[in-house]
Design a protein that fits this description.
Shape: globular
Strand order of the largest sheet: 1-11-8-7-5-6
Radius of gyration: 19 Å
CATH architecture of the largest domain: 3-Layer(aba) Sandwich
CATH topology of the largest domain: Rossmann fold
Bound molecules: ligand L34
Order of helices and strands: EHEHEHEHHHEHEHEEEEHEH
Distance between the termini: 43 Å
Helix content: 40-55%
Number of helices: 10
Number of strands: 11
CATH superfamily of the largest domain: NAD(P)-binding Rossmann-like Domain
Structural class: alpha/beta
Number of domains: 2
Largest sheet: 6 strands, parallel
CATH class of the largest domain: Alpha Beta
Length: 288
């Protein structure tokens, strides 16, 4: 219960991700006892994008923490599309592998869509394959992309009713904006999707009881664009010229208006990784 206060509570994604990873860790023990093997996640990284290297390292570390198996496949930036597709085909056929993730973005000479389509849907821990995307939109029980799943888990941790609330999602990407909007709709929120062409963004965001920012524009959302008491989830991960991480939300001004707010770093990023662990467990179970 919160009493009157001008400052938002911090929605601590790092702490919540630890809870989720501990859930997975217990489950890995049970699954190994039951099936005689551990879930196995395979992560492919192409090239040496420093941000991707950090994220992938965090994924492998998280897998190790949960006790599941993991493999890291590092391919050179000039690997051919055909060679990458061949590696994916091998992993699809490998019964010891439960989850396959190809870290995005890929070098320009590789067609990301082809790569995503090549991953067996039952091993698609990102939930990016069209068969999982269609499942999500048709209301099937299917693999939900990690970042959107993490956003929902963060919202649930506030124990706020979502049903009937107005949720504004700023951003319409296939990997965040669109799936988050669908998940909020499934919880009976009234959902608005705003984007770069939205006229008078502030008048839209001021309607939001729940605001999810996923556009990749540092500091786009400021306190004056919020309804007092809004829950603010910042999916942005932008790097300043000095290499500092910042979100799409101007934290200082928004923290004075919001009831809850995620920090960057330490908000959605760690939750993305924790939900990847959950998705790997899910794929493992479905393959048994
Ligand atoms: N295939 N590609 C695929 N799946 C994904 O789910 C991703 N994503 C996005 C980029 N490409 C992908 C990620 O893994 C973004 N993303 C991601 C994962 C982890 C973190 C951020 C983005 C993360 O760990 N963030 C930390 C800070 C890390 C740092 O210091 O740079 C945080 O506290 O926000």
């Amino acid at each position: 219960m919160r009493w009157m206060s001008n400052m938002a509570e911090i929605l601590d994604g790092k702490a919540l991700s630890a809870v989720v990873k501990d859930e997975v860790r217990s489950e890995v023990i049970e699954l190994e006892a039951k099936y005689g093997r551990k879930p196995c996640l395979c992560v492919i990284i192409v090239g040496e994008n420093p941000a991707s290297q950090v994220y992938v390292r965090n994924k492998v570390k998280a897998a190790a923490y949960t006790g599941m198996e993991s493999r890291l496949i590092e391919l050179p930036a000039d690997v051919s599309e055909a060679a990458l597709l061949e590696r994916i085909a091998e992993l699809n056929a490998d019964d010891a592998v439960d989850g396959i993730l190809v870290q995005l973005p890929l070098p320009k000479h590789i067609d990301e869509e082809k790569v995503i389509y090549a991953i067996a849907p039952e091993k698609d821990v990102d939930g990016f394959h069209p068969s999982n995307v269609s499942g999500l939109w048709l209301g099937k029980d299917c693999i939900v992309p990690c970042t959107p799943a993490g956003v929902m888990r963060l919202l649930d941790s506030t124990e706020t009713e979502i049903c009937g609330k107005t949720a504004v999602v700023v951003g319409r990407s296939n990997i965040v904006g669109k799936p988050v909007a669908k998940l909020l709709l499934d919880r009976n929120a009234t959902v608005v999707i705003a984007h770069s062409r939205t006229a008078d963004l502030a008048s839209v965001t001021r309607q939001a009881d729940i605001l999810v920012a996923a556009v990749g524009r540092p500091g786009l959302i400021t306190g004056e664009m919020l309804k007092p008491g809004a829950i603010v989830i910042d999916v942005g991960i932008n790097r300043t010229a000095e290499g500092k991480l910042c979100g799409d939300v101007d934290f200082a001004s928004c923290a004075e208006k919001a009831s809850w707010i995620t920090p960057v770093p330490g908000g959605v990023g760690p939750m993305t990784i924790a939900m990847l662990m959950k998705n790997t467990i899910r794929c493992f179970k479905a393959r048994q």
